[in-house]
Amino acid sequence: MLAVAGLLHPLLTADCCRGYDLRTGRMLFSSWGATLGLTAGGLVDQGAAAVLGAAVGVVGTAGTSLLTFWGLRWQTRQQHQSSVDQWRRGVRRDVYVQFLEREQAWSRAALDAINAVGKEEPNLAEVTRAGDECHKRWNDLQFMRETVELEGPESIISASEAMLPLEQRAFRALFVAIDAARDSAGSEERNRLVEAFVECNNEQAAAARRFRRAAREVLDMPASVMAGLPRHS
């Protein structure tokens, strides 16, 4: 800066500077000095423009870097949330499938048992084994129902709870028939009990289909909608 000032000083004090205008408060320059842009206002304007340009460049670079940072951060969060949502959907799907599988296992065991009861001459050992298998399948189903209630949401829990009294009716009808076979009840009595069980079992199967539809609806929901669903109290 001192070197530049030293070079400009002779110019400003020689022919290029013609005096000072008291009215405007500006120095008067010769024509060739004006050609070079050597006016007081020009020098200040050029310096301010240079400083402003540098400042804009710095702010622009910093702003671009900040926007890039926040953009990458948002994208990372979205990817993470999407991964979590997919994982949660997979967990729920597995729970719903296992619940339905255990419901079907219980139904098959119950049908096997009722068929053993309905024979013209029931085999008591076969009836007893079938009854024991039904107990096991029933306990497995009720354990899985508790897991369903943990996963939710409310629509699934309601569908599961709607199945329970129908399952209980089928369970009672089945074991009334099994006890009748063990007590050597006549075929007419046993047939009446078999028909009562079949009616209960059909109602239970319809409730299971409603649960299956509710599960499909939940699994097809976007994560944003799932987040707003009410939880079971």
Topology (SSEs and partners):
Blueprint: H1 2-13, E1 17-21, E2 26-29, H2 31-35, H3 40-118, H4 124-151, H5 154-182, H6 187-220, H7 223-227
Antiparallel strand pairs: 1-2
Structural category: mainly alpha
SSE order, as H and E? HEEHHHHHH
Taking the alpha carbons of the first and last residues, their distance comes to: 78 Å
CA gyration radius, whole angstroms? 44 Å
Helix count from the secondary structure assignment: 7
Order of strands, widest sheet: 1-2
Strand content: under 5%
The biggest sheet, with number of strands, parallel, antiparallel or mixed sense and barrel status, is:
2 strands, antiparallel
> What portion of residues is helical?
over 70%
Count of β-strands:
2
Mean of all residue-level pLDDT scores: 75
Q: Tell me the overall shape.
A: rod-shaped
Write a concise keyword list for the protein shown above:
single chain; two-stranded antiparallel ribbon; 82% helix; 2 strands; 233 residues; 7 helices; 4% strand; mainly alpha; disordered N terminus; rod-shaped
Question: What does this entry look like structurally?
Answer:
The chain has 233 residues and is mainly alpha-helical. The protein is built from 7 helices and 2 strands. Strands 1-2 form a two-stranded antiparallel sheet. Strand 1 and strand 2 (26-29) form a beta hairpin. Helix 3 packs antiparallel against helix 4 (124-151), helix 3 (40-118) packs parallel to helix 5 (154-182) and helix 3 (40-118) runs antiparallel to helix 6. It is rod-shaped. The two termini are 78 Å apart. The model is unreliable at 1-44 (pLDDT under 50).
